[in-house]
Amino acid sequence: MSKRCAGIVVVGEVVTVVDAEIPNDANDPIVIVADDTWRLQKGDKGSAYAVLHQRCADYLRENQIKAVVVKASALPTSSAKLGLLSSAEVRGVIIAAAAVVCNVKILSKAIISRTYGDRKVDEYIQDDEFWEAQTQGGKLRKSSREAAMLVIASRTE
After folding, report:
1. Does domain 3-154 have CATH number 1.10.580.10?
2. What is residue 64's predicted lDDT score, i.e. its pLDDT?
């Protein structure tokens, strides 16, 4: 029996969510159930974080998601900017909400590049043939491939 898993990437105040079914056979492609974007609402940050937390927990619970893989923070290439800190806050909200409902794993691109296949994550993200072979079902936006890659890379563990 397949299981539902979500890959989540946070950039600034925008959350990309890819919901997929993982077949038992590791050679079968994942089935894209949903590809969505959640945005932090405007206004008071505390209230906005509470709404996002509830939205995430409700979605995972209602859709019987068994595992979530969140893209880890990366080391900044220059001095930290406000956007980086905002991303970290939103990522924390998402991780906390997901942990209430299911198992949560946090994966970095660097770890995936070292442990999955023979290429770097960014090379897989650009490879249309890879995505045709690794996914089926619903439409996956190119901008959501990184979130889907979290699901694909974590399925072997």
Report:
1. no
2. 96
